Amino acid sequence: MDVLREIWDFMSTAILRGGMYSLMAVGLALVFGVMNIANFAHGEFYMLGAYFGYFILTATNKLGLPQFVPPILCILGAGLGVAVVAGVIERTSFRALRKRSKGQWLMNTFLLTLGISVILQNGARLVWGGKYRGVTRMWKGDALNSLLNFGLPPDRLVAFLIAVLCIGGFVLFLNKTSTGRAIRAVSQDEVGASLVGVNLGFIHTLVFSLSGLLAGIAGASLLSVTPASAFMGTMPLYKSWFVLILVGMGSIGGSIVGGLILGILEAFATTYLSQFLGSGSQDFICLAVIITILLIKPNGIFGKAVKSAVE
Length: 311
Description:
Blueprint: H1 2-35, H2 42-60, H3 69-100, H4 105-128, H5 142-145, H6 154-176, H7 178-188, H8 190-195, H9 200-221, H10 234-247, H11 252-277, H12 281-296
């Protein structure tokens, strides 16, 4: 029984972490694959999602709504709010840079996103201070409370289900809608897509907003696990890049698998290696595996098979 319990704890931890890592990495892969932007402000979109979610949740909890309504409004509102911020950033920063950049686009966008990251971090610190803002629990109810008997924190489980729904909906959007097919076309050949009537400016803004939407949903979904703070986005950003480097840059499908792999590696390190390596065991095992894979396959696990971000 103890062995079964240990296996259950290991698998549940791995899957729940992996789902959220996948959600973050998909947004990062989308921007890199379609727009060729290495977005180092992606973690700050996660941070903004947590802050927006906190203020929406605390406000809606005072309205006497049914228990399940405030968390839903919190997550949806946070995702949409970050999507708007991301869209404004793309229109005012990257669009202007695209018109003026004659070369070294990737390096220029790297420096720009670093600057945006610093601005958002210090802006959040200036506006909301250094106080951590979180909640004890987001989802309440007898049905969710019973999950505690199985060692599954309800908030983590619901966050995983939200990640699955968002990723599934996003994949359907890319494959079943005309706008999604336009995004795929731009990721494969911008010039060809523009020749057949695709509005590149609209697609670029939409892609950046969708990336912010996914990151904002991730930040709000884990509000009870990771309280909102100005510099909280650094670790999710690192994890997202770990996933992309592991599976191959710009691979959306690979990012889903890579997030689960990273979750399994971290769960293994926490369960079996932390007593030998200490608190840094998670990063150690992840980096060791990534370096090993890159020595064997420099383009990542799915690097050769992927022609564009949405394949």
